[in-house]
Design brief:
Layout: E1 10-14, H1 25-35, E2 39-44, H2 47-59, E3 64-68, H3 74-88, E4 93-96, H4 111-139, E5 142-147, H5 161-181, E6 186-191, H6 199-206
Parallel strand pairs: 1-2, 1-4, 2-3, 4-5, 5-6
The chain binds nicotinamide-adenine-dinucleotide.
The site of nicotinamide-adenine-dinucleotide has 28 residues, from helix 1 and helix 6.
Length: 207
């Protein structure tokens, strides 16, 4: 029987892998939820990376399921939430970690690249929330954590127009959700990290 403050809770982490060796935020969050006692559904469009995360959780005695899902596809997101529910019986925590920083301002980015960034960073959170929220409302309990960025409120020195705009959108999406559903037992927050040396950021900026 799992112990910890999240014992009996199910945490869905979208973007729970890491794009390279080492630790990214999604992988770290998934393992941290498991260490707090949660059953973790580690979801990623790189199934091998999600499985690496669940293997760490299993090696520590935790309970976890790895699922393939591309957050830019509504049906895939709905499928992942349904599978989490049928496996563990509840959806208590939704952790939206997927993000991508495509370099360029409006002159360098194509329209297609701009829309793609919006789709990965912002529209993805609409999809996962749309799929998970009804189950949380049924329980009258749930937590949604959206990983934004300091780029959502500041110029960080990097020319990534779509990242600024999408993370700013994540912030206000979060505020709206939090206030709309607080009275129904849903807690919704955004986290705005500064620059961290993760495999993803190394590939996008430093690599
Ligand atoms: N690393 C930083 O410096 C930094 C700073 C501020 C904010 N953030 C934000 O933190 C979050 C995590 O960043 P990180 O650098 O720790 O990365 P990470 O290591 O957590 O990697 C993100 C994961 O998302 C997965 N992913 C990407 N596209 C996907 C898709 N379409 N469908 C499903 N999964 C997908 C990747 O395979 C990867 O495993 C992002 O939202 C990022 O914008 C990072």
């Amino acid at each position: 029987m799992a112990q910890g403050i999240l014992a009996g809770r199910t945490a869905l982490v979208f973007g729970a892998g890491s794009i390279g060796p080492g630790w990214g935020n999604g992988k770290a969050a998934a393992v941290a939820y498991a260490r707090a006692g949660a059953r973790v559904v580690a979801i990623d469009h790189n199934l091998a990376a999600a499985e690496e995360t669940t293997a760490i959780i299993a090696s520590e005695g935790g309970m976890a399921l790895a699922l393939f899902c591309d957050v830019t596809k509504m049906a895939a997101v709905e499928g992942a939430v349904a599978q989490a529910l049928s496996t563990y019986g509840s959806v208590d925590i939704l952790h939206n970690n997927v993000g991508h920083a495509g370099m360029g301002g409006p002159l360098e980015l194509s329209e297609e690249q701009w829309l793609r960034e919006m789709d990965i960073n912002l529209n993805s959170m609409f999809r996962t929330t749309k799929a998970a929220l009804p189950h949380m409302l049924k329980q009258q309990r749930g937590v949604i954590t959206n990983i934004s960025s300091s780029a959502g409120i500041r110029y960080t020195g990097y020319p990534y127009a779509s990242y600024y705009a999408s993370k700013g959108g994540v912030n206000q999406f979060t505020v709206g959700l939090a206030l709309q559903y607080a009275s129904q037992g849903i807690r919704c927050n955004a986290i705005l990290p500064g620059l961290m040396d993760t495999p993803l950021i190394y590939a996008q900026i430093a690599g």
